[in-house]
Every structure is written in structure tokens, then in C-alpha cells.
Amino acid sequence: MTASRSGIPQVIVLVPLALKGHRDCFEGILRYARVNGPWRLYRREGRTGEQRLRDMKRWGCSGIITGACTLREARAIAGIRVPVVLYEPDPRMLVDGHPLSKYSCLRVDSFATGEHAARFFLDRHYERFAFVGGGQDMYWSRERGEGFRKTVEAAGGTVSEYRASTAEERHDWAIEQPRMEAWLKSLPKPVALFAAMDGRARQVLDACLDAGISVPEEVAVLGVDDDPLICEATFPTLSSIQHNSEHAGYLLAEHLDKLMRGKRLRQRVDWIKPTRVVKRRSTEATAIADKQVARACEYIWREAGHQAIGVTDVVSLFGSSRRYAETRFKTVVGRTIMEEIRRVKLERVCALLSETNLSIGEIAQQCDFARESHLAFVFRKQHNMTMSEYRAATRRLA
User: S-S: 14 plus which of 52, 66, 215, 231, CB 3.0-4.6 Å?
Assistant: First the structure.
């Protein structure tokens, strides 16, 4: 293992931290280094006047974690001849012949992110859908839009897509905003709108506010990354899809560490999957016209998975007989009350499996399953895999 004179590995992290997912990845790298290090880390800050580390080999570099980079930078990295892993590289970096194409990498599954957004809205019975891509028309934005559109179309729906920004608009939100406002006004309501990133979703919320469009009653808005600096600062607050990027960063560092220790590992491309929607005010609505059923659904979505609720609790909201409430709910939602409660509880189970180290028994208790064996049976029937397999698929490199 190449190391500094002190014997401590010196790792260069060339991942920009403007996006929440990248910051979470770096947190995971730090956590691995604290537990298994020490490592000496150099991170390019990108600030004005920063002293750059140009001669990485002379510095004593032991390994490199890099994100997207220019061809010139890629050649320089490959030329140092130390272990390298890639975090969310541009797809062009994976093409044969690129200086870094032979290295293992970790990518966000943007198509699956779009699928996740569509299922979230479909479960809330929306019939109209819209997508706003990132203003720069990046590959991950197109992939998220494609996943969203294909999932909606498979369910019998269609998606209105916002036209990509012009070159002039890409440089000035004040120029683009009037066109977005006009497009939002033209959409049939209510509509479920998925934006490719939190920053774009914030612009959608701003445009809705200025256009006099009610969120979430007329337009429900969902972003990606769950960046609290954005999501908690919008009006209304923004719901967003969360990825387990911190854990991915930990595993990426683990992979690099093995390479630095001389282990021979196969090249691979692994994927970060979306884990859950962090729900805030921007999606606190349902497209269900039946107000009693809508109120029952909102109660289930809010409470199931966090505390014990049963069918009788939901029936009481109808002020009618159980048979009438069950029939009315099933007719509108397409699932029984118990099936909807179980679906929401399993959403919570999936989130805990992906995001925590809680045991299966502890998860069963938190999500109000009487027995661990019962949860195991229900989960396998729903997801066609065990909870341990699900946790492995969403939390570790293949």
C-alpha cells in the first residue's frame, strides 16, 4: 500500500460538495476513515484563492475517489497509478478507451428514482402528471424523467414535460420564470409534478406562488436529494426523494481501502437506489375526489408505520357502518383499508432497513407488527425477497 512517510494512507477526494448527495457521500467516506483509518484526506474545496494540489504523486497519494472530471484531469489521475474509485461519473467516463473506464464506480440509479416518484404519486391516486427536468438537461435528469414517464404510462397515464430551457434562460432564472408560470397555469389540475432535483423543485414552487397556483391542492411538487437547506426553506416546505448516499460513501471508501491494501477486486458498476420520500407540505394532498375516503387515506399515510392503528380507527372517520366504509374505501382506492395500512407500514419497514442498523425484531416492533415471523412472511410476499436480501440490495455494493 502506497502511503506517506508516516505510514498513513493519503487519499484525495475529488467530489464537489454542492449537492446534498455528494455531501452525504463524503460523510460516509469520513465515517469509514474514522472507524478504519486513520486516513489523511485532501479534498478540493473549490473556493476562491484555494491552493491547488497539482502534483498528486509528489504529495504521496495512496488512492483517489473522484467524481466527474475533464479528460485532461482523468489522464492525470490515471497516470499516478494508484487505486481509484469513481463516484457518480459522467457516463462518457465509462466508455472503453476513457482513461478511467477500467475503475469501479458507484452511480445513482436515476431511472429508479423516477420510478419511485411515479409510484409515490400513483399510490395517491393522481391521474395527471408532469415532469420538470434540470435546467442544464443533464443525463441524470433525462434518466429520472424517463423512469417517471415509463412508470406512469405503464399505469395508463401520461406525463406533461416542461420544455428544456433556452441558452439565455439557463443563465437567468428571472428570464425563464414567466414561461414556467404560463406552463404551470396550462396544466390540468390537480397534477402531480416531479422535478429532477430539489433546486429545480424550488423554482417550481416559486413559480406557483407568483402565478397564484395552490400547492399542494392544485400542484403537488416532489424533488430529489432531500437537501434541508432547500426543502425547509421553500414555501410550502418541499417533499423530496432520499438516497442512502452516506452509506454508499462508506462502502466506496471500504472498496478503495481494500485496493490500497493490495487486494485484487473485480471492476464493477454499482447503484445507489432511492430509499424513501421524505414527506413535507408540498405533497400533503390527495387527488381522491371522495372527501371521506381522502381523509381516511391521509390519516393512514400520516399514522401507519409510526403508531398502532387498525381498521376500526379508520372506519370511525366515516361515521358509518364498517361494511359501508370498507366497501366505499375499496371502490375508490382499489385496496382494502387493511391492505392500505399494511402498504404504508411496509414503506416504513423498507426505509428502516435501508437507513438504519436496527435488527429485524426492532423494526417489527417500531412498525407495529406483532411478530417478527409475520413481518417476514408479509415482506417476502410483497417484495419477493427476504428483508436481509432487501437490506443487502439497498445498502451494500454488489
Answer: 66
Chain mean pLDDT for the chain: 90
How far, in Å, are 325, 329, 345, 389 from residue 322 at the CA level?
A: 5, 10, 22, 38
Cell, residue 128: 395527471
CATH topology of domain 10-109+245-275: Rossmann fold (3.40.50)
Task: Count CB-CB contacts under 10 A for residue 268.
Answer: 12
Instruction: Write down the domain spans for the chain.
Output: 10-109+245-275, 110-242+277-283, 291-395
List of residues 6+ apart from 360 with CB closer than 8 A: 372, 375, 376, 387, 388
- How far is C-alpha 244 from the chain's CA centre? 7
Query: Do the first three CATH levels of 10-109+245-275 and 291-395 match, i.e. the same topology?
Result: no
Q: Determine the length of the chain.
A: 398
pLDDT in tens, 145-165: 999 999 999 999 999 999 877
Please work out, in degrees rounded to the nearest 5, the angle formed at the alpha carbon of residue 351 by the alpha carbons of 316 and 326. 20
Provide, rounded to the nearest whole percent, the portion of the chain with pLDDT above 90: 62
Cβ neighbours for 212, distance < 8 A, ≥ 6 positions apart: none
Q: Name which of 68-72, 304-308, 339-343 the model is least confident about.
A: 304-308
Q: Which residue has the higher pLDDT, 392 or 309?
A: 309
CATH fold of 291-395: Arc Repressor Mutant, subunit A (1.10.10)
- Among residues 352, 353, 322, the alpha carbon closest in space to that of 338 is found at 322
Tens digits of residue pLDDT in 182-232: 999 999 999 999 999 999 999 999 999 999 999 999 999 999 999 999 999
Q: How much is the CA Rg of the chain, to the nearest whole Å? A: 23
Return the CATH architecture of domain 110-242+277-283.
3-Layer(aba) Sandwich (3.40)
Reading across the β-sheet that carries 63-66, which strands appear in turn?
40-43, 10-14, 63-66, 84-87, 105-108, 269-272
Q: Which residues pair with 271 in a beta bridge?
A: 107
